[in-house]
Design goal:
Layout lengths: L1 H13 L3 E6 L9 E2 L2 E2 L12 E2 L6 E11 L4 E10 L5 E8 L4 H7 L4 E5 L4 E9 L4 E11 L14
Parallel strand pairs: 1-2, 1-3
Antiparallel strand pairs: 1-10, 4-5, 5-6, 6-9, 7-8, 7-10
């Protein structure tokens, strides 16, 4: 029974999509889109450095913590995506606290869809999340091209 639980825990960790954590060192994982952003790489405006996802080599992202929202009792996290592909990219996403990542991965429920122009186009949004030190961003339903309809979703670049 312990072996099954350990195997299940390892499998769930391997299935994680993207995680951002403010730590003192940078770790780029073999997991789908998991990256830790070090505090030392935060710019004067509070943004972490640009990072490339493991799945989409042409999609970069960065995050910043905009502070605590006392009315929502959550932290506001800004997320910015940069598209280095020549074509427009479309994908759905949702940001949650890291302790909710398995639930979002299992449900595959995303709440926002974003369309980022090609050739270094940028686009962003923000999320209210319970965690003030890290966030988990789940991305799915990816399409690359001028239109966001009429063809199947895109798989990873790998």
């Amino acid at each position: 029974m312990k072996k099954i639980n350990l195997l299940l825990a390892i499998t769930m960790i391997a299935l994680s999509t993207m995680s951002f954590t403010l730590k003192d060192k940078k770790i780029v994982s073999d997991d789908y889109l998991k990256i830790e952003i070090p505090i030392t790489e935060i710019d004067s405006q509070g943004w972490g450095s640009w990072n490339t996802t493991d799945c989409l080599r042409g999609l970069d992202f960065r995050v910043k913590n905009d502070g605590y929202n006392k009315y929502a009792k959550k932290y506001r996290w800004s997320i910015q995506f940069r598209n280095r592909y020549k074509q427009k990219i479309h994908f759905s996403y949702k940001a949650v606290s890291p302790n909710e990542k398995y639930e979002i991965k299992q449900s595959e429920k995303t709440t926002d869809r974003i369309h980022v122009d090609g050739n270094n186009g940028t686009k962003g949004s923000y999320y209210l999340v319970k965690s003030g030190s890290s966030i988990y961003v789940y991305i799915n339903k990816i399409r690359i091209g001028a239109k966001d309809y009429g063809y199947d979703y895109y798989n990873c670049d790998k």
